[in-house]
Amino acid sequence: MKYQHLFFDLDHTLWDFETNSQEALLDLYSKHRLADRLEAPVEDFLNTYYQINDELWAQYREGLLSKEALRHLRFQRAFHSFGPLDEKTIAQFEKEYMLLAPQKTALMPGTLKLLSRLKPHYKLHIITNGFAETQAVKLAGSGLSPFFDVVLCSDQIGVNKPESKIFVHAMNLAQANRKSSLMIGDNLQVDVMGAKKAGIDQVYYNPKKLEHSQKPTFEVTALEEIIPLLCP
Ligand SMILES: [Mg+2]
C-alpha cells in the first residue's frame, strides 16, 4: 500500500465541533439565565458568537492574537453586542465553556467505523490547530485516544497549519516520510493546501459540498468514502 501514515485533523473532521460547541453554549446560556439578562434568544446569541469566533480564529491563525485574547474577546464581543454584561459573568462563562465543551463527545458520522477499519493497516496520527490541554480532553472523552500514535497540537510548537513546519514536525515525530503520508481534513486551506505545500497527499473531507477550484488528491463528502480508497 502506498501510504503508511494517516494524519487526521480533529475539529470538524472527527470530533463534531459544531454539535459539541453548541451543546455547551446552550447549557451555559441557560445556566446563567442569559436569555432574560440580555433579552436575547439563544439563537441570536449563537449566530453572533459564531461569526465573531470565526473572525477571531482567523486572526489567531495569522498570529495576530494570543489564545488568551481569543478566548476572552469572543465572548466579550458577543455578549456586548446585545447589551451590557458584567466582566465577572463573561469571565465565568468563558471559563466554564472551556471546561465543558471539550467534554462533549459527539463525533462526525462514520468516525469510529472509519478509524476501526484503518487501524489494522496504518499508523494513525492527529495534527490539530487546537490547544493541547483542550484537545487531550476531547480525544479521551470521545474514545478516540486509543486510535492515535502522534497527536501534535499547534500550540505545542507555536506554528499553525497551513504552515509546512507543523506537517514536517508531525512526520518527524511519527518517523514518516512525505510519500508514505496522507493528510485528511475538512479545511481546504488549512489542512489540504497546507499538506500539499508540504509535499503530502491529501483527502479533502467536504461534507457541506463547498465549491472550490483546488485539486486535492482525493475528495469525499462522507468519512466512510475513505474506506474503499484506503482499504481495497
Ligand atoms: Mg478542522
Chain-wise SSE layout:
Blueprint: E1 5-8, H1 17-31, H2 34-37, H3 42-61, H4 67-80, H5 87-100, H6 111-118, E2 123-128, H7 132-141, E3 151-153, H8 154-157, H9 164-174, E4 181-185, H10 188-197, E5 201-205, E6 218-220, H11 226-230
Parallel strand pairs: 1-2, 1-4, 2-3, 4-5, 5-6
Helix pairs in contact: 1-5, 3-4, 4-5
Magnesium ion is lined by residues 9, 11-13, 185-187.
Describe the fold and architecture.
The protein has 232 residues and is an alpha/beta fold. It has two domains: 5-15 and 107-230, HAD superfamily/HAD-like (Rossmann fold); 17-103, Orthogonal Bundle (DNA polymerase, domain 1). The chain is built from eleven helices and six strands. The chain has a six-stranded parallel beta sheet with strand order 3-2-1-4-5-6. Helix 1 crosses helix 5. 34% of the residues are buried. Bound molecules: magnesium ion. Magnesium ion binds at residues 9, 11-13, 185-187.
At a glance:
The chain has 232 residues and is α/β, with parallel strands linked by helices.
Order of helices and strands: EHHHHHHEHEHHEHEEH
What portion of the residues fall into strands of 2 or more residues?
Answer: 5-15%
**CA radius of gyration:** 19 Å
Characterize the biggest β-sheet.
6 strands, parallel
* Helical residue percent band: 40-55%
> What is the CATH superfamily label of the largest domain?
HAD superfamily/HAD-like
Number of helices: 11
The CATH topology name of the largest domain reads Rossmann fold
Query: What number of domains?
Result: 2
| Chemical compounds bound to the protein | magnesium ion
- Which residue ranges are poorly predicted, with pLDDT under 50 across at least 5 consecutive positions? none
Give the overall shape.
elongated
- CATH class category of the largest domain: Alpha Beta
